[in-house]
Amino acid sequence: MSLFQALLAGIVLPLAATASTAPSKGDLCHIIDSQLPGLVGFPNSTQYQDSQSTYYTENERQVKPSCVFRPGSTKDVARFVKLAADYDRGTKNPSLSSPLFAVRSGGHTLWQGAANAEGGVTVDMRGMDSFSLSVDKKVASIGGGSDFAKVYPQVDAHNLTVIGGRIPGVAAGGFLSGGGKNFFSRRHGFGCDNIYGYEVVLASGEVVYASASQNQDLWLALKGGSNNFGIITRYDLATYPLDLMWGGTTVLNFTPAVLDDEAQAFSDIMRPENFDDAVDVGVLLGFQNGAFFLLNTMFYSAPVANPPIFKNFTKIPGIIAQSLNLSTVSERVIEDGALLPPTVPRSFELVYSFHNADAQTYRKLIQFWQDEITRISKVDGLAVQYLLQPMPVTNGTNVLGVPPNAKDLGMWVLTGLWNKAADDDTVTKALTTILQKSERVLLEKNLSIGFKYLNYADVTQNPISTYGGENVARLWATSKKYDPKGLWQKRVPGVKLPSTY
Ligand SMILES: Cc1cc2nc3c(=O)[nH]c(=O)nc-3n(C[C@H](O)[C@H](O)[C@H](O)COP(=O)(O)OP(=O)(O)OC[C@H]3O[C@@H](n4cnc5c(N)ncnc54)[C@H](O)[C@@H]3O)c2cc1C
């Protein structure tokens, strides 16, 4: 037998492995490629290019994995994790700065490295998009990488809905593991509050089911604990009856008087005495092409045109355009998606949360934003969105630490986009200043709540640390039980469990 034949037969492989120093991570790609043929894409392949080009932000598109693995079944995922964990066994000083693999679904996280592995393997879950309804139609089972824009038409066909993303491309993998704010979240809570069960591939490669009656600690940890416990291959979601919903967008003049009215309208609709669980609303302050603009989004989860609850928004003088209609959820998602670019350049996003404030306080925070954005308005390609919206009313079956049944909580999401790396500091500092000044005011008024919603937070906001000590302790206990060697903590990037709490 020649050396070549022996290599093929695998006879000298163990010798070679022990004799060499730690192999480069690129080798993991070749191991997977040989064990799971046809599922690995190397640079320049269509599979690789398709994954890279479909990240929402340039931050993620700049990360270059050695290969992309595209599983088609839970078995593929389980085999991959086992191979990766075995391969990693001898790695000295494992660190997230040199990730072993990353997991992506919709690729809509804005911060760099959330779902793409520089020099490692990126697991692209988008092929895991199966759909089925239980016989009684109460449970929709969707693959772990499903894009909600493809899920909705399948539930719409039965006059049902699920609590998923509101823009095409946002996928179950990230949306549901980080929380999930939907049109109906004032009634049904976060997306993760509505999950009966998860099929998960653990660090050992074992496939387990987590529900209220099986692996309950894992079930709870996955409700907000992000990618710290395994790769989720299937979500079993609660379905809700829904025929048509009402809603859409109004565009208003950006003037001080209109901003006063907006602040008042938001403060009013958020008062507990005005609570209506069918309502979702957003005040979107924007800056683009050198000018400020203002949009309202209004949604009502019943087939009622122009519900009076929104009158404080619809009566504001200064509406210059509007598109409000009755639609199915999938039509709504497509219509709203068309308002946004499919991909964006450099980006940075921050979030903060609070108890409802009076109109003057909201107005003050709007002014902080406007002044700071005016100051950096010359940044090349600057576009900023400042979205004020209600917090989901959660039932508390999650680890987020948001008080259950609280109706007066809101969150403000601040997103900046720009063209050049040279402006990174200017923009991120300006957005951070807006957040800090605003939180200071809210703290003084005893309105601030520390919670940072993971799906809108930058990684530097350390969102899981805001879930509260008890929840973080519970997450660590679950991590130690299901991932004793810390694969997800040390080798797979994402929002990780906080080291101190
Ligand atoms: C245009 C736009 C609109 C948005 N709209 C909403 C909205 O209406 N409501 C809302 O709440 N949020 C919204 N978001 C935020 C969104 O929920 C998050 O960005 C979310 O993480 C996106 O999920 P993804 O699968 O696309 O993300 P990815 O970037 O692919 O993944 C996010 C994280 O989840 C992990 N992950 C992905 N798949 C799996 C899996 N199968 N198993 C385990 N871990 C996994 C990844 O490793 C990564 O750390 C929006 C974002 C954008 C850019």
Topology:
Blueprint: H1 3-8, H2 13-19, H3 26-35, E1 40-41, H4 46-53, H5 58-61, E2 67-69, H6 74-88, E3 101-104, E4 121-124, E5 131-133, E6 139-143, H7 148-156, E7 160-161, H8 172-178, H9 185-188, E8 195-201, E9 207-211, H10 216-221, E10 231-238, E11 240-241, E12 245-252, H11 256-269, E13 279-288, E14 291-300, H12 311-314, E15 319-327, H13 329-337, E16 346-355, H14 359-375, E17 383-390, E18 409-418, H15 424-444, E19 448-449, H16 469-482, H17 487-490
Parallel strand pairs: 2-4, 3-4
Antiparallel strand pairs: 1-2, 5-6, 6-10, 7-11, 8-9, 8-10, 12-14, 12-15, 13-14, 13-17, 16-18, 16-19, 17-18
The protein binds flavin-adenine dinucleotide (FAD).
Could you explain the architecture of this structure?
There is one protein chain. This protein has 501 residues and is of the alpha+beta class. It folds into 3 domains: 28-124, 2-Layer Sandwich (Uridine Diphospho-n-acetylenolpyruvylglucosamine Reductase, domain 2), CATH 3.30.43.10; 131-242 and 467-483, Uridine Diphospho-n-acetylenolpyruvylglucosamine Reductase, domain 3 (2-Layer Sandwich); 245-463, Vanillyl-alcohol Oxidase, Chain A, domain 3. The protein is 32% helix and 22% strand. The protein has 17 helices and 19 strands. It has helices at residues 3-8, 13-19, 26-35, 46-53, 58-61, 74-88, 148-156, 172-178, 185-188, 216-221, 256-269, 311-314, 329-337, 359-375, 424-444, 469-482, 487-490; strands at residues 40-41, 67-69, 101-104, 121-124, 131-133, 139-143, 160-161, 195-201, 207-211, 231-238, 240-241, 245-252, 279-288, 291-300, 319-327, 346-355, 383-390, 409-418, 448-449. The strands form 4 sheets. The chain has an 8-stranded antiparallel beta sheet, with helices on both faces. It has a 5-stranded antiparallel beta sheet with strand order 5-6-10-8-9. A 4-stranded mixed beta sheet has the order 1-2-4-3. A hairpin with a 2-residue loop joins strand 13 (279-288) and strand 14. The longest helix is centred in the last third of the chain and has 21 residues, at 424-444. The radius of gyration is 23 Å and the shape is globular. The N and C termini lie far apart (59 Å). The structure holds flavin-adenine dinucleotide. Flavin-adenine dinucleotide binds next to strand 3, helix 8 and strand 10. Flavin-adenine dinucleotide (FAD) is lined by residues 56, 102-109, 114-115, 125, 144-145, 165-167, 170-171, 173-175, 177-181, 226-227, 231-232, 340, 455-456, 494. Keywords: FAD, Flavoprotein, Oxidoreductase, Signal. This is FAD-binding PCMH-type domain-containing protein. Residues 61-242 form the FAD-binding PCMH-type domain. One of its GO terms (molecular function) is oxidoreductase activity. Residues 1-18 form the signal peptide.
